[in-house]
Every structure is written in structure tokens, then in C-alpha cells.
Amino acid sequence: MPWPLIALGLSCDAIMLVQLFYARLPRDPILLRIPGVMWIGSVWFSAYALLLLLYGILGLARLLDRLAVRLRPSRAAPLPMGDGELSIGRRELLQKAAVFGAAVPFGVSITGAPISYDFRVEHREIRLPRWPRALDGLRIVHLSDIHVGGAMNRERLLQVAALTNECMPDLVLHTGDFLTHRSGDFDAPLYEALQGIRTKHGQWACLGNHDFEDVPRLERRLRDSGVTLLRNRLAQLMIGQSPLEIGGIDYQFERREWRRTYAQIIEAWPSRGTVPRLILNHDPIAFDALPEDCADLVLSGHTHGGHVGVQLSPSSAITVVGLAGYPDQGLFKRDTMRLFVTRCVGFYGYPMRIGIPPEIALLILRAPQTV
After folding, report:
1. pTM across the whole model
2. Domains recognised in the chain with CATH numbers
3. pLDDT tens digits, residue range 197-207?
């Protein structure tokens, strides 16, 4: 391999390691915030992950092929290849194929950079079996997994707020993961953006798994920004002359206790009558663990829309999360209850989105159609 490529690779490795080191600190070095540099670590990490996956798949294929050879009946040995000319050509072909195969993950990763913060409003109408006609057409903007910090900076957050305001929402509902695991005042731009959101009936939120480092501080800053945090409690508000219940549930870390914990939380709320109810719960996988008929609509995020996959249409995708059997994005149902999973605004962990764009979800809630 030419030494310039080796030098380039080592330089990108170094940048990736420095970015990982500074990931939890309040501010990155100014060099890492240069537009052409800030994506290097994400692209490099992503490419390595895809390359490792590719090698794993190829290794499994070779293992299965060897197993098949051993199980097949023996046949006559193949003839010698001759004077070696074909062998050399085959070797060159394999070398070129190996270089191409190693380059593919890096090319795929580069395509993830522009899509990761390509914010877009996705308009959806959701018809709920028992939704009252008095609230037909209620406009909700659902935001989740903002993950302020790093590349989710002030400029991008203000863009999200502006797009939210263009939706003219009656309510803005957040399903957690406002933060990343950083220290200091890195989250100040988040509250500036939230203060700029205009809605008729307020902003409401629950906590995600990344929001627990200093909950009192987060709750205070959200409240000062016009966001009401619902911690395992139910609120009732009036939309015109019609009541509406909104419940918020903290992220529950003990998955084995989900059914019991959710039952205890919801049993402590006032009994459910005819008032329509929305529940904010960060993790969509918990939908099946919620008590039966506890809400008309549950809103979740957490999966970042599947994070890696192919977005076939605004409401259809093939994703890693979906192939694993989990709710990744869109609408799901359980008897009369519905679950909506947003593709989310930001992301965390895997360093970029690949094929799955972010989303500001505008939900129009509809009553059942009359015959």
C-alpha cells in the first residue's frame, strides 16, 4: 500500500481516538470543530464497524463452505492449473477485490455524514379507535433523542425549533434523551432552542436513559424553558372544552421488572375513564409490557428510527433494529392501543446515521371514521 494512504489512515485513526477521548468533556479542541474534521472520527469508526461486520459475514460464509465440502462425497482431484499464468491473474483479481471490499464500508460511511443532520418534518395522520371527535385534528409535534452536544450545536438546535414552529403545533411532546454523557454547561443551546418553540398547549416530556446524570438540574432547566417534565405522573389539560390526559414515565433500567414497575406506576394514577390519554415512554420495546388499555397512543423514540438501514419511504424502512424484531419507526398496534416511534432528531452511540434520516414528526390525531 502506498505510504501516503498509510499516513492518511494513521492520521484519521488519531483524530478518531482524540474525538473519543473528548466525547464526555464540555468542549472539544477547536481543531476538532472544523467542518472538514468533525466528521472524520464518525466516518472512520463507522467504517471500521462495517468492515468488521463484513469480515464476520465472510468468515461465516467460508466456515459454512468448508463444512459443506467435508459433508459432500469425495470426487476426483482437479487437474493442475498449468504453467501458473492463470494463478497469477487470479491472485491479482483477488487482491483488487480485497481492496475494493475494504473500501466499500468507508464509502458507505461517508454517505452517512450528510444525512445525519438532514432535519425534515414528516407529516402523519394517526386514526385512533376511541379518539373523540372533539379532538379530531389535534396537531402534535413529537421530538425525541435530541442528544445536545458535539455536532448537535446551537445552529442545528435552532433549526429544529424553527421547523417545529412551522408545524403550528397544539402540543410539543418530547420522549427523552435530551442529553449526552458530557459534563459542564454543554447543554445551554438546548434550552435556548426550547424557549423559542411556540405551542398552544405547552411542551411535555419524559426522561430517557441518557437524562439521569443530574435530574434536578435538568428538570429545573427544562421548566425554565417552558417544558413540563412528567416523572411517572399524569397531567390533565383542557384543549378548548375537551380534557386530555398526558402521562410521562421515566426510563426503566431493570427490564426484567418492566411489567410490575409499569403496572405500579399506572395504577397510582387516577382510574382511566373516557378521557383520551397519551403516554410518553422513551423505549418502544416496553410497549408490550405496559398494562392493557392504559392509553390511546404511546409515543417513544430511543431507536433513532433503526439508525442503520434503508429508508424506503417516510413511513417504511428496512433497518437493523427492525430486522432484530424490535419497533424501529412508525406506527404499531396492540388491541385498541397504538404506539408511534419517531426516527428521532439526533443520535448517540453509533457515531452517525446510515440510510435513516432524522425526523421532526408532525402527528395529526384523528377520530374513527363514521360509516
Report:
1. 0.78
2. 3-115 (no CATH), 121-366 (3.60.21.10)
3. 999 999 999 99
